[in-house]
From TrEMBL:
Domain of life: Bacteria
Species, as recorded: Anoxybacteroides amylolyticum
Record-given protein name: TIGR02677 family protein
Amino acid sequence: MDTSWLKPITEAKYLVVDNAYRYRAILRYFYTQHERMRQYLFPEEVYAFLKQYDEFRDYTEEELQQDLEQLVKWKNLIARQETGHIRTIEEFKKKRFRYQCSPYTVEIERMIRTLEQLGDTFGGSLEKTRFDRLYASLVRMESIIHGGFVEKRDEINQVWEETFDYFKKIIQNSADYIAYLNGENMEERMMSDSFLVYKEQFTAYLRDFIVALQKTSMQIKGIRCTKLLKKCWITGNGFRLPFITKKRMNRSGS
């Protein structure tokens, strides 16, 4: 086991502590500005943003400064002393800082944005066209290897990233869709008369996906070049769908 999995994530504390609404509002603003390629923010700008909302009507600049310092301690923000416009020693001693969102926090906020768009049920899909894209990308990778890597590095990196992106999305979408099928809401729908109307469409949808999976896995098995490419092989076992009990299949009328 990787021991890094066992360590507490200090950067996530702001989500559950007292005054979490203040920390979340501050870091969401930093995140949105990061997405706009504005890396460093001054406290005055953050304060002006927060004061637009009723929840921060009584919020003071001193409280903001305390919150910023706490977020620095939790490694959510990176503080940098501003020295560009200092004219006197007294101004230097005041240590005016500007702040940047840390990489960990950017990813946490990005994940939260995704979670906010999710419903209470799993989504996902069994999109068979992704197999064709994955195979085409692997063929392109094989061509690059056989050609001696004469393409530009950016082009090679793009093909590599696209290949693993197709692979990852097939797994994620398939797993989410199977979880959706195995959910309690789906069980109730399978027992209803209305589900029988869609039974044939659902069966065809699942069958087409499995056929595309088997076809593409055989094509990918034919790609043989280097050990590097062998690590990218996807066989039928690699995409085996989670087990659906006979009981569930009987309910669906299959």
